[in-house]
């Protein structure tokens, strides 16, 4: 979102998109045999400093290629294996692709 975590969590639209993406990742993890709890993940995010941003956001801001294949790409490939839709993750990937430096 080109914003700090605090800004994302303070904006209902962006916070909702983040929560949806977390839910999708949790569903994909479960399909892959891992156990995650969306509430725990959301709590961990809420516990971070509000001025924090992700390493991917910092890479994009610095003009470096984003790790889209390694991070959300792995989630989307697993989702495809299990016929799971991940519209929130796909939406975020598209936003990042629009800003990221080419590989």
Question: What is the number of E strands?
Answer: 0
Low-confidence stretches: none
Q: Give the N-to-C terminal Cα separation.
A: 20 Å
Order of helices and strands: HHHHHH
Beta-strand portion reads under 5%
Mean pLDDT metric: 93
Instruction: Indicate the radius of gyration in whole angstroms.
Output: 14 Å
Summarize the main sheet: none
Name the shape in a single word: globular
Helicity level: 55-70%
The number of helical runs is: 6
Instruction: Classify the secondary structure makeup into a structural class.
Output: mainly alpha
Provide structural commentary:
- With 103 residues, the chain is mainly α.
- Helix content is 64%, strand content 0%.
- It contains six helices and no strands.
- The protein has helices at 5-10, 12-31, 38-47, 55-61, 72-81, 87-99.
- Helix 2 (12-31) packs across helix 5 (72-81) and helix 2 crosses helix 6.
- The model has no long low-confidence stretch (mean pLDDT 93).
What does this entry show, briefly?
With 103 residues, this protein is an all-alpha fold. It is built from six helices and no strands.
List the main descriptive attributes of the protein structure presented here.
103 residues, mainly alpha, 6 helices, globular
Chart the SSEs and their pairings.
Blueprint: H1 5-10, H2 12-31, H3 38-47, H4 55-61, H5 72-81, H6 87-99
